Amino acid sequence: MNEQKIFWALNIKYLRERKQMSQHQLAREIGIPRSRINTHERGKIINPALNDLLDFSQYFGIRVDALLQADLSVLSENDVKQLESGGEVYLNGGMIRNLSVVVKDEKMKRLSMKYRQNATAGNTGLMAEQL
User: Fold this and answer.
1) Residue 69 domain-assigned?
2) How high is the pLDDT of residue 22?
3) What value does the mean pLDDT take over residues 64-85?
4) Number of independent structural domains in the chain
5) pTM here?
6) Does one domain contain both 17 and 59?
7) Angle at 110 between CA 96 and CA 120, to 5 degrees
8) Residue 1 lies in a domain
9) How is residue 2 annotated by DSSP?
10) CATH number at residue 76
């Protein structure tokens, strides 16, 4: 299995700075020591505790998988806002794809559902004849 790049440390710092917060302010909001925020942001915690993953995810409103697997700093402001509002995202390596489908008939609805299932599994190369 290929080693995946983890963006946890970069994302925590990026999101904090995006809100124009100090480490101390974020620590107070989340309820953890400022030193732990610093340790997370410097990438010194290899395997963050589950409670930390959930605390940061809930505070920033971004799913844990996105915090870990995607470099949020390269996304547009609109994409980050969509993630914060709970928008459905599909991760493939470090990329995030937002899939929006307009369904006009039942056949297109089935195609849309099949595509979403495959995209969730990481396969975005679905061809119409595979249906």
Assistant:
1) yes
2) 97
3) 87
4) 2
5) 0.66
6) yes
7) 25
8) no
9) P
10) 1.10.260.40
